[in-house]
Specification:
It is a single chain. The chain has two domains: 4-155, 3-Layer(aba) Sandwich (Rossmann fold), CATH 3.40.50.300; 165-270, Zinc Finger, Delta Prime, domain 3 (Up-down Bundle), CATH 1.20.272. 53% of the residues lie in helices and 10% in strands. It has helices spanning 4-15, 30-49, 67-71, 81-92, 113-124, 144-147, 165-178, 182-191, 198-217, 229-232, 236-255, 260-270; strands at 22-27, 58-61, 101-105, 130-136, 151-155. Strands 2-3-4-1-5 form a five-stranded parallel sheet, with helices on both faces. Strand 3 (101-105), helix 5 (113-124) and strand 4 (130-136) form a beta-alpha-beta unit. Helix 4 (81-92) runs parallel beside helix 5, helix 7 (165-178) packs across helix 9 (198-217) and helix 11 packs antiparallel against helix 12 (260-270). The radius of gyration is 20 Å and the shape is globular. The termini are far apart.
Length: 271
C-alpha cells in the first residue's frame, strides 16, 4: 500500500483513542494525499457506522469552490472565508452515525488570511469527534498559528525534481543577483523576460531552492554546497518569510493584473 507507514501510524492512533483533532499532510502530490486522507476517513467512519464503502460525514474544501472561482473559471487559487464558515457549520452538527465529523482542506495554503483566521478558532476549540486534515505542498506558507495547531505528517515523493539546463541557468542568475546591491537587483528585474509563463517558472525555481534551504537549515537534508555565505546566515523564520512571499506573489499575479516586474522587484528586495 502507498504510504503504508503513515497509514499504520494513523490507524494505531485511532485504535488507541489518541487521534489528534487536526493534521497537516505535507507533500508534493496533493491529489495523492487527498486520496490518502479520504481512505483514512472512510476507515474510521465505516468502522463506527458499519456502512460499507459509503463515505460518511466528510466535507472536502477546495479552491475551485470559492466564490471568485465560481464567477471566473480561471480563478481557482483562493479558498475564501465563506468556505471556512461553511466548514465550521458542518462541524457544529453531530455525526448522524456517531462517527467522526471530518473535513479535508485541499491545497490548504490557498486559504486567504481571513479564511485562516476563521479556521483558527475551530483548531483551538475543536468539538467532539472532529477530524480536520489540511493537505498542502507548501505548508511552510501557512500562518504559524495554523501550522502549530496541527500535527504534521510528511509524505516524501519517490523521486526528486531534476532541473533542466534552462532552470539551472535561471537559478544561477538568481543566486548571483541575490548577493548584489539594490541597483543590480532592479536591473535584473528590468531586463528579465517575464512574459507568458516565465515569471511563474522563476517563482517555482526560487520556491524549490528555498524549500531545500529550509530543509538543510532544520537538518532534514544534507547541505548540497549551493548556499552562499549570505544564505547560510538566514534564519529559519527569514526563509519561511521568503517562501510565504513567493506564494503571495504567485497568487497575486495569477488572479489579478499585478505587474510581474513589480512583484519580482519586491521579492528581490526581501532576498
Amino acid at each position: 500500500m502507498e504510504h503504508a507507514k503513515q497509514f499504520e501510524f494513523l490507524k494505531n492512533k485511532y485504535e488507541m483513542g489518541q487521534l489528534a483533532h487536526a493534521y497537516l499532510f505535507s507533500g508534493a502530490d496533493v491529489a495523492d494525499l487527498v486520496g490518502f486522507a479520504k481512505k483514512f476517513v472512510h476507515l474510521i467512519n465505516s468502522k463506527s457506522a458499519g456502512a460499507g464503502d459509503l463515505p460518511i460525514d466528510l466535507l472536502v474544501v477546495t479552491s475551485v469552490q470559492s466564490e471568485s472561482s465560481l464567477k471566473n473559471e480561471k480563478d481557482m487559487m483562493e479558498i475564501d472565508v465563506d468556505q471556512i464558515r461553511a466548514l465550521n457549520t458542518f462541524l457544529s452538527y453531530k455525526s448522524y452515525y456517531g462517527g467522526y465529523k471530518a473535513v479535508i482542506i485541499e491545497n490548504a495554503e490557498r486559504m486567504n488570511l481571513e479564511a485562516q483566521s476563521c479556521l483558527l478558532k475551530t483548531l483551538e476549540e475543536p468539538k467532539g469527534q472532529t477530524l480536520i486534515i489540511l493537505v498542502s505542498s507548501k505548508s511552510e506558507t501557512l500562518m504559524n498559528t495554523i501550522f502549530s495547531r496541527c500535527q504534521t505528517i510528511k509524505f516524501f515523493s519517490k523521486g526528486t525534481h531534476q532541473e533542466s539546463p534552462k532552470e539551472q541557468k535561471i537559478l544561477q542568475e538568481l543566486l548571483d543577483v541575490i548577493n548584489q546591491d539594490l541597483a543590480e537587483k532592479f536591473q535584473y528585474a528590468k531586463k528579465a523576460d517575464l512574459q507568458e509563463n516565465n515569471f511563474n517558472e522563476i517563482l517555482e525555481i526560487l520556491q524549490r531552492y528555498f524549500r531545500n534551504v529550509l530543509l538543510i537549515k532544520i537538518g532534514a537534508q544534507k547541505d548540497d554546497g549551493t548556499q552562499s555565505e549570505k544564505l547560510k546566515s538566514y534564519s529559519i523564520e527569514k526563509i519561511k518569510t521568503i517562501l510565504r512571499l513567493i506564494e503571495k506573489m504567485n497568487h497575486q499575479v495569477s488572479v489579478s493584473n499585478a505587474s510581474p516586474k513589480l512583484a519580482l522587484e519586491i521579492l528581490l528586495l526581501e532576498l
